[in-house]
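Please fill in the sequence for the structure shown.

STRUCTURE ENCODING:
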């Protein structure tokens, strides 16, 4: 489907209708495309473990992260409640020389490596599966599709599409590069890996490599390579369970339409029902995949079961 770049409203509406999964798994379902990730798919993923080498795909959660406070998104604030100093000074009141440390963290749930839940984005007042947004997410949280429902399910066959290495220069795509479905297919072909129904697909652009070399800059919300709006058909037709990128916003920025904000989110989350991950650290995994030529692996990436949350931090683990 070719979008009209001067008409975001119409283009989004046409794509939403063409790629809608509303009702596909019944009126009451709460998992969206995770329905594609079944028991057989998990067994397939587990069979990919050969060497036992593992990779954390999470950025660190600390004050040195990329956030600038947009829409009150800040970096994590980590505070100690009890310390070694308290123990040595005898301030803790424990008997027989026992001492300890405790801490607390305060942070937006989407300030670092994370999943976007199905209640995160609405389309003209409609949440995933056509539900009224005001009845789904209230001040009490996501009452229907809270991220806690996904906690047992996000584990299976992972596939890395290293578009940065296949198409980019020196392993990196420039900011503003729009990754189409054809680019994703080309990357899979160059890596000799198939994307199949129920996969968790990881797309490396190389932007994280660049910002670690040059500084965060506008990583959070600024120009970035990412998925093109035209990739909506690929995302729907491939029947993948989830997708994640190494960028702040998943889709290309600046967006491809005039006067639009994150139009692919508007199609992918409330209409396709797609689980989207952002700010994943794919660097070490990508290096290993390039070394051994194997771009499929076991991947577990459970969100925290925070009741009613519309997103969650995650520490994804890939095992080869």
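FILLED IN BY: designer on duty
SEQUENCE:
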């Amino acid at each position: 489907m070719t979008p009209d770049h001067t008409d975001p409203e119409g283009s989004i509406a046409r794509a939403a209708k063409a790629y809608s999964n509303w009702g596909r798994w019944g009126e009451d379902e709460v998992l969206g495309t995770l329905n594609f990730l079944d028991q057989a798919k998990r067994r397939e993923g587990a069979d990919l473990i050969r060497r036992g080498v593992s990779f954390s795909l999470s950025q660190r959660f600390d004050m040195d992260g990329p956030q600038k406070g947009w829409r009150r998104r800040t970096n994590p604030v980590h505070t100690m409640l009890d310390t070694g100093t308290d123990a040595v000074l005898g301030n803790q009141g424990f008997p027989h020389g026992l001492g300890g440390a405790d801490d607390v963290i305060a942070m937006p749930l989407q300030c670092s490596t994370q999943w976007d839940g199905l209640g995160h984005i609405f389309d003209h007042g409609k949440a995933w599966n056509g539900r009224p947004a005001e009845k789904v997410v209230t001040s009490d949280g996501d009452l229907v599709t809270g991220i806690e429902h996904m906690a047992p399910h996000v584990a299976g066959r992972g596939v890395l599409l290293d578009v940065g290495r296949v198409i980019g220069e020196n392993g990196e795509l420039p900011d503003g590069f729009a990754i189409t479905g054809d680019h994703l297919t080309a990357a899979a072909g160059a890596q000799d890996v198939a994307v199949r129904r129920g996969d968790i697909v990881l797309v490396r652009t190389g932007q994280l490599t660049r910002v670690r070399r040059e500084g965060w800059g506008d990583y959070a919300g600024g120009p970035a390579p990412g998925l093109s709006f035209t990739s909506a058909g690929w995302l729907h037709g491939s029947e993948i369970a989830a997708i994640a990128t190494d960028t702040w916003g998943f889709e290309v920025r600046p967006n491809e339409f005039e006067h639009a904000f994150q139009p692919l989110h508007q199609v992918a989350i409330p209409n396709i029902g797609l689980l989207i991950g952002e700010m994943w650290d794919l660097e070490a995994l990508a290096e290993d995949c390039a070394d051994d030529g194997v771009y499929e692996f076991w991947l577990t990436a459970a969100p925290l079961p925070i009741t009613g949350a519309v997103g969650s931090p995650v520490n994804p683990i890939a095992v080869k």
